[in-house]
Design goal:
Elements lengths: L12 H5 L10 H10 L8 H5 L3 E3 L18 H16 L7 H21 L21 H24 L15 H18 L11 H10 L14 E3 L15 H4 L2 E3 L1 H9 L4 H5 L4 H5 L19 H9 L8 H5 L7 E4 L1 H13 L11 H15 L5 E8 L11 E8 H6 L10 H14 L7 H9 L25 H5 L1 H8 L17
Antiparallel strand pairs: 1-3, 2-4, 5-6
Length: about 500
């Protein structure tokens, strides 16, 4: 047999390997959009139970235990940050460009998110791919030091770009390429990280109090959020991106009740937000209670055995999340990622702790008051007058009909209660600030409510047989399982501080 070979038919292997129908590079704007989407931690899942806003009432579908698994692995998102920065340079952007400035913010955001969950993590030697397959774990202190420096650099870079009238950013789904809006987020997020470091004010390297005071005292250099209109928030769309709690997931909602940790804070203070976020317990209403009586709202104790919770729910003695607000449609409420309400409480806490004397709004009470009012406004609760209250009777489909009542609200009377009015710059004031921030965090901001409880002990989280983990709330997440086999030496060095066990009850540096 003679085989004819056509030399002209030979092709370079790389040419054959490449798919002409598949792009080999993407513009930085597409990567930016993906990174922004990954900032979101959506409501309607395990986080709501970890934060003790909701609880599971059916053991077949889940539980309320604090037997944490692995924390978030966000290194693929951080790789996208690097790729975004490189793509911006490849496309002809100057060395100083918006993608590079925002890249510093994203690095700080995602690295600290992982560190708050797990403790020490790879940072300085991470993201090097095949060049370095076994990165060392940086101490949690180093992660925060580096991240605070990145945020300071991002603020400086954004200020320079704004002064130069840079318009090189595109693909910004949150602020329509407004760099000043991002600069406010960068500095507001830095305030959040500094509050997380409240136990480390004596550390001469961190300068926690000094940094916080410097930012608040100089809004020209360090602009922060001025109102809820500046919030970084996720807006849900139908049908492309529906709110996770919607009429098609209503059956799942019936498996969850509101948690007493949250509900009792509202009912104890006759807080009108309970009417918006929670349904009255159907059994308490049919037994003669009123749908507008605070006594008709009852959360479940997440520490109880699941069988007890199932029995209480079956007899109608536990409240659900408000089904009109969260399940009657598809777009729900916006989900906050970094917002003005939280910032007000953070500044109030910093003043309480003596990090600064006051801010542009005044003292700690002014910011505490502003935070509560901002949260009330989010739920469209007027400062005085009447507001509609919608509830769904037991057995009625999610489409309704809903029962509509009205309640009279008066913010001045609400705030004048001794349990609500700011008690002063003392431990009681800290508790009030953190508890009001917890209420405002409802179904948004990811694990921030849990992190604040872990740091301060407020509000009091319920424990018991239902929460597992020997009746303790876990203090950290484990490392991804692959680390134990793929990065053994560095993994072992990281868990040495927890008696050589990847222990969910281990006390990380930031809590000591």
């Amino acid at each position: 047999m003679v085989v004819a070979v056509c030399s002209g038919c030979k092709k370079d292997f790389q040419e054959l390997y490449e798919n002409p129908n598949k792009p080999t590079s993407v513009p930085p704007s597409l990567l930016l959009n993906s990174i922004m989407n990954n900032m979101l931690e959506a409501p309607g899942g395990q986080l709501d139970r970890t934060n003790q806003y909701q609880l599971q009432n059916n053991s077949y579908f889940g539980n309320n235990q604090y037997n944490f698994g692995a924390g978030s692995n966000l290194y693929s998102t951080l790789t996208d940050v690097t790729n975004m920065e490189n793509a911006a340079l490849t496309s002809g952007a100057a060395d100083q460009n918006p993608y590079h400035a925002l890249g510093k913010f994203f690095r700080a955001y995602f690295f600290t998110k992982m560190s708050l969950q797990m403790g020490d993590i790879p940072m300085s030697e991470a993201l090097k791919g095949a060049e370095l397959l076994n990165p060392v774990y940086d101490s949690q202190k180093t992660v925060f030091l580096n991240s605070l420096n990145l945020l300071d650099q991002a603020n400086t870079d954004l200020a320079a770009l704004i002064a130069g009238n840079s318009t090189a950013l595109s693909g910004d789904m949150y602020f329509s390429n407004n760099l000043l809006a991002w600069q406010r987020i960068v500095n507001t997020y830095r305030l959040r990280l500094l509050i997380h470091l409240s136990k480390k004010t004596a550390d001469a390297d961190l300068k926690v109090a000094q940094q916080f005071a410097q930012i608040v005292a100089d809004p020209a250099k360090y602009p922060i959020l001025l109102s809820s209109g500046n919030d970084l928030k996720y807006t849900w769309l139908n049908p492309t991106n529906r709110y996770p709690l919607n009429r098609e997931t209503f059956a799942n909602g019936a498996l969850n009740n509101s948690a007493d940790t949250y509900v009792s804070l509202l009912t104890a203070n006759k807080d009108p937000r309970v009417f918006v976020t929670t349904d009255p317990a159907p059994g308490l209403v049919t037994a003669g209670g009123s749908a507008t009586d605070f006594s008709s709202f009852q959360g479940g104790n997440i520490g109880l055995d699941m069988g007890v919770l199932a029995s209480q729910n079956g007899s109608g003695r536990l409240s659900y999340i408000n089904r009109y607000r969260y399940f009657s449609g598809y777009t729900g409420e916006t989900t906050a990622i970094i917002n003005y309400t939280e910032m007000c409480f953070n500044i109030a806490e910093a003043i309480n702790r003596g990090w600064l004397a006051s801010g542009p709004l005044g003292g700690a009470e002014a910011y505490y008051n502003a935070g509560i009012k901002s949260s009330m406004a989010f739920y469209a609760i007027p400062e005085s007058g009447t507001m509609p209250v919608y509830s769904l009777p037991l057995g009625v489909p999610v489409s309704g009909p809903y029962v509509t009542n009205t309640v009279t609200v008066n913010y001045s009377a609400f705030y004048a209660q001794p349990t609500v009015k700011y008690a002063g710059n003392n431990e009681t004031g800290i508790r009030q600030i953190v508890e009001q921030k917890y209420i405002a965090f409802y179904l948004n901001s990811g694990l921030e409510p849990y992190f604040n409880w872990r740091r301060t002990g407020f509000p009091v989280f319920r424990t018991g047989v239902g929460t597992g983990n020997n009746g303790k709330i876990a203090l950290r997440y484990k490392y991804p399982a692959a680390e134990q086999s793929a990065n053994t030496a560095n993994y072992n060095a990281a868990i040495a501080q927890y008696n050589n066990v990847d222990d969910v009850n281990g006390i990380m540096w930031i809590l000591k």
